[in-house]
Structures are given as structure tokens and as C-alpha cells.
Design a protein that fits this description.
two-stranded antiparallel sheet, globular, 7 helices, alpha/beta, five-stranded parallel β-sheet, 241 residues, Rossmann fold, 44% helix, single chain
Length: 241
């Protein structure tokens, strides 16, 4: 099973799960370096803050305009309506309530089965468009313990999707075994400070949807779990840069 690296170099085709956040933007840049044709897919699952959907569109436009060499492989974008699923898999990301820890130790930002649903929808699109490689920003190093971010979950899903659709899918996770500091370093490696600056200014990762507070590491409330991880990674990377 794949560990998140690919032997391909500027060949083949990939579909990137692109939310408009830091991790998925780094994964998109990574895929654009490795594949000759790259398409993107995003999801409206009824999240509280539709700002991320607006951010992803603006990011794609900026990538095409400001990174023409990197974006040469960038193809069509797809946005899928999964609001019915979001209502079913209720969490603090789909309902206006305070973020808290659940009895099982997970934060209630966990949307049950979200990555399973996203990757299943992505595979259906990939089947139709000839995109056998699915790229996602899941990580089990710096993360909140979500079970559908673990590599063993994705290995099982990769096998199920391949069997269920009769097509050999590969789920690649370039960030799976690196922390947020290394994610910043990877962004710099892929696109220099220009890409880092794009991520700081234009991506959205904050769980609370805050865009009017600016920090060295980007925009966000600064206190939700996503912001805390991002800020900590930035500080560690800057110290070692």
C-alpha cells in the first residue's frame, strides 16, 4: 500500500481533494510537481463557514495567474454538494456550537466518516475522468486524532474503492508522516516564499471561519485547534529556517 510518495514524475493524472486550506494547498502544489494532469475537487458539506469555498476558488485563480509554471498541469475544478451528508454527520463544523471534547477523547470538530465520504465521491469522479490517483492532506502526526486521517484507514479504503469500482485507485497522502513545521518546509521547497506567502494570505484553515484577524502564519481566530497547530508549526519552521 502507498505511504504517500509516488514514483511518477510529471506523468499520469491525479485528483486532489482541495479544501482551500493550508494542507490541501501544499498537496496541490506537490501533485502539480509530480503529475502531468491534475484536477481538483472540493465539497460543500454544509460547513458553518462557507468562506473556505470562496477561498479555494480565489486560490486556484491566483495559482494560475502567479505560478504559471506550477499551474501548467492544473485542469478542471469540481465542487460537489454533500450538504445532506453534513446534516447527517453533525458536528461543531456543521452546527453553530462551541468546540468541545467528546467523551471518547475526540474534539467534536470530527465529522464522522468525512474523509471516507470525500474519497468515495472523489473516486467516482476519478473513475469517470480517468484520474486513478487521489491526493489528500490527511496526516496522523500533527492532528486531532481523527480515525479517518490514519494511513491504515486509507489503505483499507483504497482497497475497497479499487474492488468496488473495478479500477486500481491509489490514495496518496504527502503529509501523512510529517508535522506542521515540515509542511511549511515542504511548501517552501515546492514554491519558495511566494508559495508560502500565498498560503499565509489566501488559505483558510480556522475552524471558526475567522478572516479578519491576521497572524504571521495566516488568518484565523488563533485559538481553535486548527489555528494552534498551524501557529506552532510556523514558529518551529521559522526557528529552523
Amino acid at each position: 500500500m502507498s505511504t504517500g510518495s509516488s514514483s511518477s514524475s510529471a506523468t499520469g493524472a491525479a485528483l486532489v481533494l482541495f479544501s482551500g486550506g493550508q494542507d490541501s494547498t501544499v498537496c496541490l502544489a506537490w501533485a502539480l510537481r509530480h503529475y502531468a494532469r491534475v484536477e481538483t475537487i472540493g465539497f460543500d458539506y454544509g460547513q458553518n463557514h462557507s468562506v473556505e469555498l470562496a477561498c479555494r476558488t480565489a486560490l486556484l485563480e491566483k495559482l494560475r495567474a502567479e505560478f504559471p509554471a506550477l499551474a501548467a498541469a492544473l485542469g478542471e475544478d469540481h465542487c460537489v454538494d454533500l450538504r445532506g451528508y453534513g446534516a447527517l454527520a453533525e458536528s461543531s463544523l456543521t452546527r453553530p456550537r462551541a468546540i468541545r471534547m467528546r467523551e471518547d477523547g475526540l474534539p467534536d470538530t470530527f465529522v464522522p466518516g468525512r474523509n471516507v465520504m470525500f474519497l468515495t465521491a472523489a473516486a467516482a469522479l476519478g473513475y469517470r475522468r480517468g484520474l486513478p490517483v487521489l491526493v489528500g492532506g490527511m496526516c496522523e502526526t500533527d492532528y486531532s486524532g481523527y480515525p479517518d486521517c490514519r494511513r491504515d484507514t486509507l489503505d483499507a479504503l483504497q482497497k475497497a474503492l479499487s474492488l468496488g469500482m473495478g479500477m486500481d485507485f491509489e490514495i496518496l497522502t504527502p503529509l501523512m508522516h510529517i508535522d506542521k513545521a515540515a509542511t511549511w518546509a515542504l511548501a517552501f521547497e515546492l514554491g519558495g516564499m511566494a508559495l508560502v506567502d500565498l498560503i499565509v494570505e489566501d488559505t483558510h484553515t480556522c475552524y471558526r471561519g475567522v478572516r479578519d484577524q491576521t497572524h504571521d502564519w495566516g488568518k484565523g481566530c488563533g485559538t481553535c485547534p486548527a489555528c494552534v497547530l498551524r501557529a506552532r508549526g510556523w514558529q518551529v519552521w521559522k526557528k529552523g529556517a
